[in-house]
Amino acid sequence: MGSKALFFFALLSFSALSCLIKTSSASDNQNEQDPGLVMNFYKDSCPQAEDIIKEQVRLLYKRHKNTAFSWLRNIFHDCAVQSCDASLLLDSTRRSLSEKEMDRSFGMRNFRYIETIKEAVERECPGVVSCSDILVLSARDGIASLGGPYIPLKTGRRDGRRSRAEILEQYLPDHNESMSVVLDRFASMGIDTPGLVALLGSHSVGRTHCVKLVHRLYPEVDPALNPDHVEHMLYKCPDSIPDPKAVQYVRNDRGTPMILDNNYYRNILDNKGLLQVDHQLATDKRTKPYVKKMAKSQAYFFKEFSRAIKILSENNPLTGTKGEIRKQCNLVNKLH
Ligand code: HEM
Ligand SMILES: *[C@@H]1O[C@H](CO)[C@@H](O)[C@H](O)[C@H]1NC(C)=O
Question: pTM of the entire structure?
């Protein structure tokens, strides 16, 4: 070997070595950069973030109580569809349909107030706090506003860049889905039977529009329904094909419509469940024992509800350098 060749060989092996060193340190750095979800992720980058969100949720709740229902429904509709990545919040574009426009999202409301919360956070810490964390923390604070438990939740999620509308129906069950399918879908997120039973307790607040109910009233009344409740449902939904422009609906829990409590379980045991899934929850032999237990014990309901919300909120998040921090929750950032 000539001295020149030796020199090149040395150079080559040196650069190969430094390349090795580089890749190993790069992957170390990546682990440091991506702790995944943690408690109080923004403690250094935006220490006031969680307080700002809490305050905004409180102010909005004072003005419109139903915002809290929306924050609770959002966590299901975003996190159960593959990932808590705020894909739910994206508007339709020329190329893609918004998840919000799908039939499964029927009746979802108050999305503009998510922007109110986001704007308040952006004023303090621009470009730092993700919409997916705002969605999850607003659900946590909304649940507490409704008289539910306070559930400590991790943060550090980042926002997705595309709508998941085309696969929505594979993840979100329909109002009349069989209990086997419902149980399977929750199990695939790591949510067990008592967890599912507790989460459906969310139907202790809010409303259901007549379009989702009329098949249980017309052409004939579902014999499984409690006749006392049928009278009320027929009064609220007088047409077999509801006028799409008239906002006709039945409250999910007539007893305590504004409170997240275990009254839902007593209602469904009394055959007053509005949706077919609600009714099945109280009759299916796999779920009924938990329904009875939750009807008796609010503490047990809250314990299982808190556990399940935590699992739901940690479903397959984007963390580290994946995704982005959206500037506005209804739009992906422009790439330069
Ligand atoms: C099998 C699963 C589920 C089905 C089929 C289902 C279906 C529905 C339907 C059809 C409505 C009525 C929408 C309307 O007409 O306006 C509704 C409302 C609601 N759902 Fe669910 N849901 C399910 C699970 C959940 C879960 C897991 C949560 C929360 C963690 C949740 C939270 C809510 C809330 C809070 C409302 C009331 C919304 C409002 O009044 O604005 N649901 N759901
Ligand atoms: C569930 O209801 C929808 C209408 O909302 C209907 O098209 C569908 O056939 C029903 N599915 C079952 C399994 O009954």
Answer: 0.91
